[in-house]
Amino acid sequence: MPSTLEGQITMEKTPSYFVTNHAPKRIHSMAKDIKLIIVVRNPVTRAISDYTQTLSKKPEIPTFEVLAFKNRTLGLIDASWSALRIGIYALHLESWMQYFPLSQMHFVSGERLIVDPAGEMAKVQDFLGLKRIVTDKHFYFNKTKGFPCLKKPEDSSTPRCLGKSKGRTHPKIDPDVIRRLHKFYKPFNMMFYQMTGQNFEWELEEDSVSRSSQD
């Protein structure tokens, strides 16, 4: 990590830390007072996004439906598949809570980050003890990618958007598989809500899937 002067904050981003078993202990040994920011989204959507990224690099891999089940007839989910295991947030958070109090963690809703980036960034700035400098005037929504882009309000430079690996169109997944995954994740989500004291409302998406499949 680079040296940090008084009045500065150094940030580093590595998504795999959250799901790596030895990461909490090693980070605690390095800086026990560190502040941790974790961005989470509906684990079903996250798994499909994960699969989409892998599919773009390895188009020969089996379908999502095949990889998601040990036995689809019996409805046995393959929780050992990394795309699904990562979304069991309560399991991973348990490891971090052995070393860090919740007061040093801030959870960002991936869904709200898209629809209200300024609102989520306001909470992040508060958590870090910063002035609310980043506001809604710093964001521009890119309809093509489906994500907000960052811009400098003081000039007319091109907004900075996520790279080519983001915003890919997800493959169409069997609605029955999505329903089964929502059911699989529900108890873990409830546990995660209880642990964090936040309701991310992912079950509302499950309800919309159920209604659309009945239309």
TrEMBL record:
One of its GO terms (molecular function) is [heparan sulfate]-glucosamine 3-sulfotransferase activity. Keywords: Disulfide bond, Glycoprotein, Transferase. 3'-phosphoadenylyl sulfate binds at residues 41, 49, 166-170. Residues 29-186 form the Sulfotransferase domain. Pfam families: Sulfotransfer_1 (PF00685). Its EC number is 2.8.2.-. Signal peptide: none annotated. InterPro entries: NST/OST (IPR037359), P-loop_NTPase (IPR027417), Sulfotransferase_dom (IPR000863). It comes from the Eukaryota. It is an enzyme of class 2 (transferase). Disulfide bonds join 149-161. Belongs to the sulfotransferase 1 family. This is Sulfotransferase.
